[in-house]
Backbone:
């Protein structure tokens, strides 16, 4: 397991063009407790950011052998993070405690996440924090429907910041919120125009933070309870928001960890580009405490062991956010793998 | 994962969590070796549908074989599926209804 104390958390701020990423970043960096944050941005926007730890990176990507775009390690980002760390260690720049990466408006966040979790040097010094996605309340509905990038940015988010709610009609705000909740019911939506943004909630409270681990998992499970079990079928394949569906699966008996690992790796290898998020709490055979699983596309975080269950319900509950995959397919498949494990005599060969 | 990372001791998430410590608290937690053999046995239940077979290799790697004699050494579970994909020329989709049906039959046989 990783030592969370020694790894520098990396938060990713993403969001469609003009959705207010830089304004949000500026507000976050202005708070004294987050002043020791290093920032990497893809492009300098119209809003000037005056921060002593600001770097610009160029787009250039290095494709891994697998050739899958979401597992691309971005060469530019890799160099930028390594360089930042090297200068931190040499004392050239102050010893920043966290890193924030602001993506371009059209960016797919997955390669950025892959770079942080897979690059051999970076993964030993950094760990992934929250993905924060900004959505413009005025144009958000249009972006979600028409732009695959926007729908994906929302699907992979841990936090959604709804901007420009002060200049949008109340009906527009309601509509965009309903769409956001449907695409990603696990991410809390923060309306940035009306309330002061809490930087700690966005940047610091995550699954790897021991004091907030439990509340984070509880939030996912609330999303699970919102799933009405209705089967979602897209009416219009050109509407990107409708191709994405979120649903929860609940398993009464304990799950076999090995079978689950086999099933998930196989699913991610074959359909990983359409499995946007997997989040859940598992009741594992022979393990009294819950195991938390958390993945974005092909990237699966090291499983987190919790000291206790968040509530009295000790069933395994997993939330999936997928593109064009029906709930029944996932449910039947995982059940079949688990049943196979249950019926195999575990001790027979293993002795 | 490249062989260099393997030498450096990079662990896939399924390996990392297969350690007895990760299973902590259980009455008789399996050893890493037992877990690995059990994993191979389970994977073979699935690979049999695709006429492939996996063997453990020194507790470090796995050897994937096809019936036509193709062989490949792979480091972790994720790599098993990508190597298998190359061997049979198509994706191994766990949600494929015919595979799910096959596994259900297998479960009743055991």
Residues:
């Amino acid at each position: 397991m990783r030592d969370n104390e020694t790894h520098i958390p990396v938060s990713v701020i993403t969001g469609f063009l003009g959705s207010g990423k830089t304004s949000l970043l500026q507000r976050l960096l202005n708070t004294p407790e987050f002043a020791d944050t290093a920032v990497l941005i893809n492009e300098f926007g119209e809003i000037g950011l005056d921060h002593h730890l600001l770097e610009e990176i160029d787009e250039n990507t290095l494709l891994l052998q697998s050739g899958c775009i979401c597992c691309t390690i971005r060469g530019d980002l890799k160099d930028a993070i390594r360089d930042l760390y090297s200068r931190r260690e040499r004392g050239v720049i102050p010893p920043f405690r966290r890193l924030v990466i602001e993506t371009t408006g059209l960016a797919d966040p997955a390669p950025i996440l892959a770079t942080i979790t897979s690059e051999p040097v970076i993964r030993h010094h950094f760990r992934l924090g929250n993905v924060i996605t900004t959505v413009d309340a005025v144009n958000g509905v249009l972006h979600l429907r028409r732009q695959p990038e926007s729908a994906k940015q929302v699907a992979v988010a841990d936090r959604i910041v709804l901007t420009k709610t002060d200049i949008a009609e109340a009906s527009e705000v309601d509509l965009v919120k309903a769409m956001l909740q449907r695409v990603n019911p696990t991410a809390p939506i923060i309306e940035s125009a009306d309330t002061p943004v809490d930087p700690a909630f966005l940047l610091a409270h995550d699954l790897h933070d021991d004091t907030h681990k439990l509340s984070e998992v509880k939030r996912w499970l609330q999303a699970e309870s919102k799933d009405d079990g209705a089967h979602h079928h897209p009416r219009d394949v050109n509407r990107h928001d409708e191709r994405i569906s979120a649903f929860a699966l609940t398993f009464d008996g304990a799950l076999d960890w090995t079978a689950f690992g086999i099933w998930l790796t196989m699913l991610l290898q074959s359909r990983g580009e359409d499995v946007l998020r997997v989040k859940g709490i598992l009741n594992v055979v022979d393990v009294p405490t819950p195991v938390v699983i958390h993945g974005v596309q092909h990237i699966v975080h090291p499983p987190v062991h919790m000291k206790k269950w968040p509530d009295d319900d000790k069933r395994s509950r997993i939330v999936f956010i997928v593109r064009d995959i029906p709930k029944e397919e996932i449910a039947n498949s995982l059940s079949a793998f688990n049943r196979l494990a249950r019926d195999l005599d575990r001790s027979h060969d293993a002795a | 994962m490249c062989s260099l990372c393997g030498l450096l001791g990079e662990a896939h998430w399924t390996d990392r969590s297969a350690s007895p410590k990760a299973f902590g608290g259980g009455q008789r937690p399996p050893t890493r070796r037992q877990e690995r053999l059990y994993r191979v046995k389970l994977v073979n239940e699935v690979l049999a549908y695709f006429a492939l077979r996996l063997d453990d290799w020194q507790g470090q790697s796995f050897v994937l074989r096809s019936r036509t004699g193709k062989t490949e050494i792979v480091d972790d579970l994720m790599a098993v599926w990508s190597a298998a994909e190359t061997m049979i020329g198509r994706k191994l989709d766990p949600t494929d209804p015919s595979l799910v049906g096959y596994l259900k039959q297998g479960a009743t046989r055991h």
Summary: The first helix of chain A runs from residue 21 to 29. Chain A touches chain B through 46 residues (CB under 8 Å). Chain A has a mean pLDDT of 82. The longest strand of chain A covers residues 126-136.
